[in-house]
Amino acid sequence: MKSDRWTRRAMLMLVALTTVLSGCTTYVTTQVTAFSDWSGSDTSRTYAFTRGPAQQNSLEQQTYEIEVANELATRAFRQVDAQQAHYLVGLSYGTKGETINVTQPVFYSSPWPGPFWGRPLDPWGAFGPFPPAYVSQSYPVFSHTLGIRMTERATGKEVYNVMARNAGDEPSLVRAMPYLVRSALADFPLGNGAVRTVKLPLDKNAGVSNEAAGVPAPASIAPTAPPTSAAVVAQ
Predict the structure, then answer these.
(1) Are 97 and 138 in contact (CB under 8 A)?
(2) Residue burial 112-121, b: 16+ Cβ < 10 Å; e: rest
(3) Contacts of 54 (CB under 8 A, 6+ apart)
């Protein structure tokens, strides 16, 4: 548990540092973890969504189900009435916000003339080293998650459970959801215990990413519409 907390803090710190270094971006990045006992065939890929008590009559739930259904359709799944479905598909999702404090060194040149006078940001002046000053800044970080759980309707047996997670300075889960959906179902079905990093091309027409140019980051901020180009899946 302690190592998990440190890993999470390190990820959030990297997100914050990447936000500081933000520039021209091309990809958004999502971590995906799957647990699988999948043995289904294309002929049995019929499903219906199932909802928890808090998800009943929810327009938000309906919106996310449509996005998942569109992605499942590309993998030969067909949505049917619950009584005819081979699988039941449940969704879980959420957003958690935190504030990360980042302390950065600021170097100053020597205030006295000397052989190195005039060098910007030079920590070594004419008469010796000048220690840097440190400035702390706070950055909001929002962690978005989507879980997709598939069970056999007849037996209740869980056959697939996948979690997608990304983080960034975008507070809206709605804007993050298209990337979460595509990442969660990329290369379906993954093996049991598989952990993947999925990079999706950034939609240039909407949304931003906190992955700075040349700096990989475990974060993404999604556009309002799903990107159309192919995913890049890294082990």
Answers:
(1) no
(2) eeeeeeeeee
(3) none
Taking CA atoms, 200 is separated from 85, 135, 164, 167, 232, in Å, by 31, 34, 13, 14, 6
- Of the CA atoms within 13 Å of residue 219, those in its CB half-sphere come to 31
DSSP codes joined into one string, 104-142: EEE----SS-STTTT-TT-SEETTEE-PPEEEEEEEEEE
Structure confidence at residue 214 (pLDDT): 32
User: pLDDT confidence of 1, banded at 50, 70, 90?
Assistant: low
Neighbours of 209 (CB within 10 A): 26
| Beta-bridge mates of residue 141 | 98
Give me the amino acid identity at 189: P
Query: Do 93 and 177 touch, CB atoms closer than 8 A?
Result: yes
**pLDDT for residue 139:** 81
Residues with Cβ within 8 Å of 35's Cβ and at least 6 positions away in sequence, in order, are 160, 161, 162, 192, 193
Angle among Cα 193, 198, 201 to the nearest 5 degrees reads 170
Domains by residue range for the chain, with CATH: 2-234 (3.30.160.670)
pLDDT of residue 62: 97
